Amino acid sequence: MSATLLSGKPLAAVIQLRARDEAMKLENEGARPVLAVVVATDDESTHWYVRSIERAADRAGIGCRIVDLGPGATEHVLASVLKDLSADPSVNGIILQTPLPAGVGTDALVSHIAPEKDIDGANPLSLGRLAVGQPAFAPATARAVVEILDHYDIPVAGRNVVVIGRSAVVGKPLSLLLLERDAAITVCHSKSGPLERYTETADVVVVAAGRTGLLTGAHVSSRSIVIDVGTNVLADGSLVGDVDEASVLGVAAALTPVPGGVGTVTTALLLLHTAEAAREQSRSLIPGPVG
Ligand code: NAP
């Protein structure tokens, strides 16, 4: 048996069009959405990724301001740039791109991104709001997984969903989004023991660990839907996920490819979030009734 490949491309195209429609409306109102991406590394794969966001933003009619501070940027400089962008009315969305320079921590810095511009859900306030069901931007990758499940009509309510990885950017927010949809969630991590103990009976398995070949055909069953969030760059420059594609394809019901799966949808959602943020910000500029 061979699993169905759940490509992210058709969904990404739909989301990109939604972002473009909203961006065009805003532009007609004189408020073209602008995304700022703060970078402080000379890592070539990061710059490649940032350029891909820039190209996608251009296609969607969204302005993209790359703020490249170089690998020597200090925490102080990064913090003040994030505060300035948060206060800048011409910027609607902000991403702080990792990796950061050695010794600079992400946690304190992301708190400087204004929640209304936090289009990748990095500020702990956004995660807190998600946890209690208040409006907030979810990290685009976490939302991408949910959107892919919706797009392919894969229900999660009352089903057994295993999320491998518990980071604040993927595993935790994704678990919250799935819980909101009434899934029965198990979150695995590096200390949860043999994965097959959890994955063998799962309806849906989401892998977000950053470990090549972590999930194999031996971990899944013929009814498993497998979503591969992992992105690992091999020595030859090729991109692979966390799933051993050849063996999982032979056993599972469906699998998202890498590349062309979750990552593709994530980029489109960053743009949709920017357009949505710009729309909200334009509303808050309209003065309310007096008295
Ligand atoms: P991270 O912060 O390094 O977290 C990795 C998580 O995986 C941790 O919770 C870790 O457990 C767990 N883990 C590591 N080894 C494991 C193992 N052998 N068994 C079970 N769990 C294990 O990574 P992240 O930022 O969440 O990213 C995860 C992956 O997703 C990476 O490959 C990243 O590049 C990719 N990613 C992709 C996108 C996209 O758009 N496609 C976006 C963001 C991230 P502990 O907590 O116990 O250490």
UniProtKB/TrEMBL annotation:
Tetrahydrofolate dehydrogenase/cyclohydrolase catalytic domain sequence ranges: 6-120
Cellular-component GO terms for this entry: cytosol
Entry-linked Pfam families: THF_DHG_CYH, THF_DHG_CYH_C
Biological pathway: One-carbon metabolism; tetrahydrofolate interconversion
Residues of the Tetrahydrofolate dehydrogenase/cyclohydrolase NAD(P)-binding domain: 139-281
UniProt keyword annotation of Oxidoreductase present: yes
Entry keyword NADP: yes
Record: residues binding NADP(+): 165-167, 231
EC number: 1.5.1.5, 3.5.4.9
Gene Ontology terms for molecular function: methenyltetrahydrofolate cyclohydrolase activity; methylenetetrahydrofolate dehydrogenase (NADP+) activity
GO biological process terms, semicolon-separated: L-histidine biosynthetic process; methionine biosynthetic process; purine nucleotide biosynthetic process; tetrahydrofolate interconversion
Reactions accelerated catalytically: (6R)-5,10-methylene-5,6,7,8-tetrahydrofolate + NADP(+) = (6R)-5,10-methenyltetrahydrofolate + NADPH; (6R)-5,10-methenyltetrahydrofolate + H2O = (6R)-10-formyltetrahydrofolate + H(+)
Keywords: Amino-acid biosynthesis, Histidine biosynthesis, Hydrolase, Methionine biosynthesis, Multifunctional enzyme, NADP, One-carbon metabolism, Oxidoreductase, Purine biosynthesis
Transmembrane segments: none
Similarity comment text for this entry: Belongs to the tetrahydrofolate dehydrogenase/cyclohydrolase family.
Assembly and interaction partners: Homodimer.
HAMAP family: THF_DHG_CYH
Physiological role: Catalyzes the oxidation of 5,10-methylenetetrahydrofolate to 5,10-methenyltetrahydrofolate and then the hydrolysis of 5,10-methenyltetrahydrofolate to 10-formyltetrahydrofolate.
PANTHER family found in the cross-reference section: C-1-TETRAHYDROFOLATE SYNTHASE, CYTOPLASMIC, C-1-TETRAHYDROFOLATE SYNTHASE, CYTOPLASMIC-RELATED
Record protein name field: Bifunctional protein FolD
Organism in which the protein naturally occurs: Arthrobacter bambusae
Gene (name only): folD
